[in-house]
Structure prediction request, 257 residues.
Amino acid sequence: MKEPIITLDNEMHDRHELTQKAIQDSFYYGYLAKACLSSSAISQLLKSPLEYLNQINLPTESDALAQGYLFHASILEEDKFNECLFLDVKTKANKEYKLAKEERWDVFTVKDRDKALRLRDRFYNCKPASELIENSEFEVPMVNNLMGYPFRAKADVLGQYLIDLKTTQVLSAFKYSANKYNYDSQCYIYCNLFGKSYKDFKYIVIDKSPTNEIGIFNVSENFYFSGEQKVEYAIKVYENYIKNEFDLENYLVEDTL
Prediction:
């Protein structure tokens, strides 16, 4: 049965068809990035409406995002990992590397590949972590309404648990990072889009230091509702400044120190 959903560009679609198309990265990170809200869009709106518009109009690819993709692909999508181009160059300032990046986005150094494989091996050698993703689906897309707006999401792991894989510089600081980077809002969005309780949501985190420590983080009720509050606030920002076409030349922040 068709389920109508209206995207941010005021186009009506069948929700199931959008979700099916979202399997393709080009569609998920292309059309849907502008037509739906997401956890990353919420983080941008929490910073400012200018941050959100800048990313929509001039999307940028940071090295951190690229490394995150490589890490995820090494564990969850081996075929995509193997399709990447790995160049044996000392730096990314190398002419061969720069020319390759002009032709395709999935270009990495051999050093990048080896780091990702080291993290992958560490993950699969840790049975309490690797067993959590057994009998699960990987990179599962979803498009659905939340708080009256279309949202998109891709679950790293969907099975008994809804799991998101993260890397971090310092595992002991992950709780701080989870708040700083609004992982609570991601948790809230994903649980609602995929119909999971926060009790079934987990973060599996790997420290990028030489020890590659692994942490499994469950989610508290407070964390979940903190995410809900952030999403509500971000949507108000969207409505006040984006939907109502506020003149952002006049946007500023006022506060007291």
